[in-house]
């Protein structure tokens, strides 16, 4: 049986089909190219918007035409920055003991440890407090780290002639500089007291059960804020200033409700007893280079942990902690202190976070530190 004849296609019909196919392919190519360009445009626009939102505003440079003016005494650091400082107590030349106070989150040189004047005179104390980098009238440090803050303290002490050794008293998040001094410059220390030093939830070595216990006491905003600061530090400023999601206790308007009754009373009282100059200056250069840098240094990975420290110079070290401190869980503080046999741990029942404002506490702290130092010196 003969094969069926194939249908014949005319040349004109073939040319017509070819033109239609080419037009169809050209149209599809045009459409896909347009879509790609549109997607790229959207990505660029959205990326630019996100970048603008998460990027902190520029620093308000000190002594610039539109910036804050410098009125406090300042000392040059090794990298050319300047730190503002404040001296209280007896004359430096007549002092029996030098004390450097390191303020906490949102603090300044104007929030020095309120030791009664009569105690300062009796003990012969010279006390210097300073604005940490980016706070108040101190220049910011874009490369701020635990070690750079330690170097700032050393430079300050050297320029003021606080030799051979000096005492250090830290408050809250200023404690990371205290631990740093014990790590990098222990030979300069006569003794140290840390008041409510903040604990990093990501320090290796803390028991998981105690971490879970402490973490479960934190508010949702604190959990999110700390997690973002640890894993995505570049988003710290944005998250703590946005209004759509719960923020950290230290940043939220209702944060005061997280503290115990005594701390709440202190927080309400502070504007009446603290210099208005403090509130005017504290973040005048911007929150990013002051408060946010604090959080980023404190809650990202450390080059060491306090639990790994040694104390070859037998420096007296005291840690003070309130049992009702919401910001720093007492169970974690106790774990840190108990891992260091050379640390004397003081747990204050019923006390909250703002220990410096509790009646009698500053005097008790400084007397305890000096007495311990004298005992070690006598031995």
Summarize the structure.
The chain is α/β, with parallel strands linked by helices and 379 residues long. It starts with 10 loop residues before the first helix and ends with a helix. This is AB hydrolase-1 domain-containing protein.
Structure, described:
The chain is of the alpha/beta class and 379 residues long. It has one domain (74-378): Alpha/Beta hydrolase fold, catalytic domain (Rossmann fold), CATH 3.40.50.1820. It is 42% helix and 13% strand. The chain contains 12 helices and 8 strands. The protein has helices spanning 11-54, 117-123, 146-160, 175-184, 208-215, 220-231, 236-241, 261-273, 276-281, 288-299, 330-338, 361-378; strands at 74-76, 82-89, 97-102, 125-130, 166-171, 189-195, 317-322, 343-348. It has an 8-stranded mixed β-sheet with strand order 1-2-4-3-5-6-7-8, sandwiched between helices. β1 (74-76) and β2 form a beta hairpin. The longest helix has 44 residues, at 11-54.
What is the overall number of helices? 12
Distance between the termini: 122 Å
CATH architecture: 3-Layer(aba) Sandwich
Number of domains: 1
What's the level 1 CATH class?
Answer: Alpha Beta
CATH topology group: Rossmann fold
Q: Strand order within the widest sheet?
A: 1-2-4-3-5-6-7-8
Please trace the helix and strand order, writing H or E for each element. Answer: HEEEHEHEHEHHHHHHEHEH
Helix amount, in percent? 40-55%
CATH superfamily: Alpha/Beta hydrolase fold, catalytic domain
Protein name: AB hydrolase-1 domain-containing protein
Region (Disordered): 1-21
Domain AB hydrolase-1: 99-355
Organism: Ceratodon purpureus
């Amino acid at each position: 049986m003969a094969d069926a004849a194939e249908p014949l296609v005319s040349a004109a019909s073939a040319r017509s089909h070819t033109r239609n196919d080419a037009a169809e392919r050209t149209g599809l190519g045009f459409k896909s190219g347009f879509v790609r360009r549109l997607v790229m445009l959207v990505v660029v626009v959205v990326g630019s918007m996100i970048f603008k939102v998460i990027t902190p505003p520029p620093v308000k440079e000190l002594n610039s035409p539109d910036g804050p003016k410098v009125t406090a005494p300042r000392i040059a650091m090794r990298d050319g920055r300047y730190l503002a400082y404040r001296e209280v107590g007896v004359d430096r030349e007549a002092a029996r003991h030098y004390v450097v106070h390191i303020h906490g989150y949102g603090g300044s040189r104007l929030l020095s440890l309120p030791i009664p004047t009569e105690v300062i005179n009796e003990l012969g104390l010279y006390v210097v407090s300073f604005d940490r980098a980016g706070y108040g009238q101190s220049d910011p440090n874009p490369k701020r780290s635990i070690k750079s803050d330690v170097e700032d303290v050393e430079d300050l002490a050297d320029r003021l002639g606080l030799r051979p050794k000096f005492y250090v008293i830290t408050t809250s998040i200023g404690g990371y500089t205290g631990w740093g001094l014990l790590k990098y410059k222990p030979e300069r220390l006569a003794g140290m007291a840390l008041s409510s030093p903040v604990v990093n939830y990501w320090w290796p070595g803390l028991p998981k059960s105690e971490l879970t216990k402490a973490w479960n006491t934190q508010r949702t905003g604190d959990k999110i804020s700390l997690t973002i600061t640890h894993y995505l530090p570049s988003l710290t400023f944005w998250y703590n200033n946005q209004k759509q999601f719960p923020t950290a206790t230290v940043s939220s308007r209702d944060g005061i409700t997280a503290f115990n009754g005594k701390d709440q009373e202190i927080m309400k009282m502070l504007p009446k007893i603290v210099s208005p100059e403090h509130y005017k200056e504290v973040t005048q250069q911007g929150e990013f280079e002051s408060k946010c840098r604090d959080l980023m240094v404190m809650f990202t990975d450390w080059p060491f942990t306090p639990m790994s420290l040694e104390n070859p110079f037998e420096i007296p070290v005291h840690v003070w902690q309130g049992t009702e401190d919401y910001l720093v869980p007492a169970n974690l503080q106790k774990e840190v202190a108990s891992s260091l046999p050379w640390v004397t741990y003081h747990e204050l029942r019923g006390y909250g976070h703002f220990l410096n404002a509790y009646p009698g506490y500053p005097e008790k702290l400084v007397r305890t530190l000096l007495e311990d130092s004298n005992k070690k010196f006598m031995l």
